[in-house]
Amino acid sequence: MSDSEELVKLSFFTNVGKAISTASTLKETLSEVMKQIGEVFAPAYWSLLLRIPSTGELRFAIVIGSGVEELEGRILPKGHGVAGWIAENGEALIIEDVSKDKRFDSSMDELTQFETKSIIGVPLKSGSKVFGVIELINKLDGMPFDMFELSILRTIADFAAIAIEKAYYVRALKRIASIDALTGLYNRRAFQQFLDREIERSKRSGENLAIMMIDVDGFKGINDTYGHVAGDEVLKDVGSILQQGLRKTDVVCRYGGDEFIVIMPGISEEGAQHAKGRIRRRLDKHNEKSAISIGLSIGIHVGSGTDSDTILKFVDKDLYGDKALSVERNIDNLGENLTDMLDADQ
Predict the structure, then answer these.
(1) Which is catalytic among the residues 258, 284, 318, 322?
(2) Count of beta carbons in the 10 Å neighbourhood of residue 17
(3) Active-site annotation holds for 258
(4) Model confidence over 80-127: pLDDT tens digits?
């Protein structure tokens, strides 16, 4: 390898290394890698495809080049075409003339009205795990790709794989930090972040922001009577009931202990009360089948954005109002049960 080739390689890898270490998101990192690829190889177009773990299909995550932008986001079936072969075999590939290679599939050319002549591609992988593929199509000077370029691209793929792994680990750590381990719901820390964001959005848009606070009635008694394992199951059941009874846009969190809290953006007072009714109906169905009957007190505050302390104070007040009604309901039910028992004795 010549001194000039070594210099190009060293300069490139220095730039890529800086990009990986300073980028804050995976998209930002990979975009920088792809930018550097364009400067070094000068392909007609180049793409980065990420593998979908559940299906093995490849998705065009980044596509650069004139006239092929519509490929971005498209799905390539598992094992399909040159990129599919690379992903399945985990091996780099260089094809000087695609017309002589059976692995090449022309369907993407037909879609973009582009004529592919030569391809160079490498897998993005860590160990035996393939994350995706980097694929370069045609050199602008009309020459085929060579083995030196394949060697450089292999090392680029190693850098990109490091970036992907780094992003996955960071994402996993963020998820661990924001998720309640028992219920799988967002935790109190995540709730505060979501609430601050929604308050600001409510202030800008003028839309309502509803907060629902839920408390499990007599939870200490459940733990004392049935044990803490049963108590944990009750909390998981409550989390499931809330998720099933609310909208996908609502954010359900475990606030702490036996308290849950829900952020409901852009909903009216009537809509929030309807949601409360859905939760109670689901709770009734659950209690019909469960050995442990669960009671919930539910407080709601609906208004435009103000500040988190004020919102929580209002919803907490409504919660304890509902809890007082719950106590009255329980006393009424107890009275009815005693009356039924006395009537039966007579």
Answers:
(1) 258
(2) 12
(3) yes
(4) 999 999 999 999 999 999 999 999 988 888 888 888 999 999 999 888
